[in-house]
Specification:
This protein has 14 helices and 18 strands. The chain is of the alpha/beta class. A six-stranded mixed beta sheet has the order 4-5-16-13-14-15, sandwiched between helices. Helix 2 runs antiparallel to helix 5 and helix 6 packs across helix 7.
Length: 432
């Protein structure tokens, strides 16, 4: 634990109006709002000051809603691309890498930028709350929270689809304070979210909150802070694959803070976001310029999720329409959605490995595939300043030569499991 740290000073603000209010420690919604909206953290420090070396993610603590710092974090790393830039004929391409790549200074042991969320959220979590944190995930988020909570003895219940539990690998056993429950094979991320919502009706369980948690979004926003403090400027274009779109919302909010800072330019970067064919709910809605997602049959959606390589991009109820969500972000700063097939993503991953020298996750490969498509379609100025957000990589590098430990599910729930049985089974897990 780093001891010379004072809690970050901030207030919370409703997206729907100018009202600000103090954080009670775990506010997820604006008090008194009739219609749902996201809330934002308004920091006392209007200009970002970086912490000294050794703070990891908390280098950016001025703009993180945290009251404590946990050891073991790593910040995203930004570098100017040579290999991929040359392959694509781009003159000002930067890669912001979150994962395990020691030569670049990246030490995220889960290989995913979901650690930026976990360390920020757990830095906001009150040690003496007496509650159990509940996180729903399709894979990488669960692995990141399991690691951080295990190392810091934070009681945690993870809810996942059974078909994604191969992602629950670790290089050391997970502490018993972390429990995993799953929805039966054939289910998807939305089913896991439904399960977590049922659990959180119990008094001792608290939802992590997903996109509603300002700590999650501002943790993810450190990717843009890494880019800007490394290059000295805000990018013209921002490329990322999205499942919920929370990372893109976070990027937009970080951009707005950087504009207020005043030292990095006055442009709003265009959000160039991608989804994995055939699962395209936000792509379809954006192309129709619809604030609401288009109707999609639940069973068809589950079939589409099975078909995509990038399983983490499978949120059927993303924060797209909510005030302050992705639709508003896209409307404010421009940009577009791009669809990428499994084949295109696989080719992009192979090209990235060849050009940059590191393996990347399927979701990151979708982002690379979208950048390749933009170049091939001549949709990018050659001299544009581009941020490519590689949200996971170096996993194979990290695993090499290590004995892996897998977190096994304590309970498998059916999709139509009665709520009373869910309550009974979950309470037994933490009865001791």
């Amino acid at each position: 634990m780093v001891h010379d740290f004072l809690p970050t000073k901030y207030r919370l603000k409703s997206f729907s109006n100018e009202n600000t209010f103090p954080d009670d420690g775990w506010l997820l919604d604006a008090p008194g709002e009739k219609d749902p909206c996201l809330i934002r953290a308004i920091y006392a420090s209007k200009q970002l000051s970086l912490r000294r070396e050794g703070y990891g993610l908390y280098t950016f603590a001025d703009w993180l809603p945290v009251y404590r710092i946990l050891e073991g974090s790593s910040a995203p790393v930004t570098y100017r691309s040579e290999g991929l830039a040359k392959k694509l004929g781009l003159h000002d391409l930067y890669i912001t890498f979150s994962g395990f790549w020691p030569e670049k200074g990246a030490f995220m042991k889960t290989g995913s930028f979901k650690e930026t969320e976990a360390y920020s959220v757990c830095g906001r979590w009150k040690e003496d709350s007496g509650k159990i944190l509940v996180v729903a995930s399709a894979g990488n988020t669960a692995r990141a929270f399991a690691r951080v909570c295990s190392e810091n003895k934070i009681p945690l219940l993870l809810c996942m689809p059974e078909d994604t539990i191969d992602s629950m690998w670790f290089d050391a056993p997970v502490d018993p304070c972390v429990k995993l429950v799953v929805t039966a094979s054939g289910s998807d991320y939305f089913d896991a979210i439904h399960l977590s919502n049922e659990v959180c009706k119990l008094e001792t369980f608290v939802p992590e909150g997903g996109a509603k948690n300002v700590a999650r979004r501002d943790g993810m926003g450190t990717t843009v802070l890494s880019f800007t403090t490394t290059t000295g400027k805000i990018p013209d274009y921002y490329y990322q694959a999205v499942g919920s779109g929370t990372g893109a919302i976070a990027a937009w909010e970080a951009n707005l803070r950087l504009l207020e800072d005043g030292r990095f330019g006055n442009n709003k970067m265009k959000l160039m976001l991608s989804q994995n064919v055939p699962f395209l709910p936000m792509y379809d809605a954006w192309k129709a310029r619809s604030r609401n997602l288009l109707p999609l049959d639940d069973q068809l959606a589950r079939q589409q999720v099975v078909a995509i390589d990038a399983k983490v991009l499978s949120n059927r109820r993303p924060p797209y329409a909510i005030a302050g969500g992705l639709f508003d972000a896209m409307n404010d700063c421009g940009g577009d959605f791009i669809q990428v097939t499994n084949q295109e993503a696989r080719a992009a991953a192979a090209l990235f490995l060849q050009a940059e020298g590191i393996d990347i996750h399927p979701a990151a490969a979708v982002a690379v595939g979208s950048l390749i498509k933009s170049v091939n379609e001549m949709a990018l100025p050659k001299d544009a300043c581009i941020m490519l957000n590689i949200t996971g990589g170096g996993e194979e590098r990290f695993k090499k030569g290590k004995e892996l430990h897998f977190l096994k599910p304590a309970v498998v729930f059916q999709i139509d499991e009665p709520p009373e049985l869910i309550s009974e089974k979950v309470l037994k897990l933490f009865a001791a």
